[in-house]
Specification:
Elements lengths: L13 H6 L8 H11 L11 H9 L5 E5 L3 H4 L3 H9 L3 E5 L13
Parallel strand pairs: 1-2
Helix pairs in contact: 3-5
Protein name: CbbBc protein
InterPro entries: Prok_molybdopt-oxidoreductase
Organism: Enterobacter agglomerans
């Protein structure tokens, strides 16, 4: 009682991904620890968040979409625009445990 808000981030294990360091802009300390532990130099360039990735797809700057679970076409706030962005990719790969709407939006 009186605990306040408790955001439940459950879609496609979003919280678990973040806990394990999956982020479009990982912290410098995380990258250094990762590189030291596995003896390699991880890429330092930031990636795209969802909105940035969709915009890049629409500008034809992203050619390949690899989706690990989830249902991007239905989860993004503007499904028609998301489907248009996905369809502009030359290749779309979905790694999922069950079929979903995104699988119906192939690249060209």
């Amino acid at each position: 009682k009186g605990a306040g808000l408790c955001p439940v981030r459950g879609h496609s294990n979003v919280q678990g991904n973040r806990t394990m360091g999956i982020d479009e802009k990982p912290a410098k300390a995380f990258l250094e620890a990762l590189g030291n532990h596995f003896n390699f130099e991880p890429p330092r360039a930031a990636g795209h968040n969802t909105v940035e990735a969709l915009n890049a797809m629409l500008r034809d700057e992203v050619k390949v979409l690899i989706a690990l679970g989830g249902n991007l076409a239905a989860a993004a706030p503007d499904s028609p625009r998301t489907e248009e962005a996905m369809s502009r990719c030359g290749l779309t790969v979905h790694i999922s445990t069950k079929l979903n709407r995104s699988h119906l939006v192939p690249g060209h």
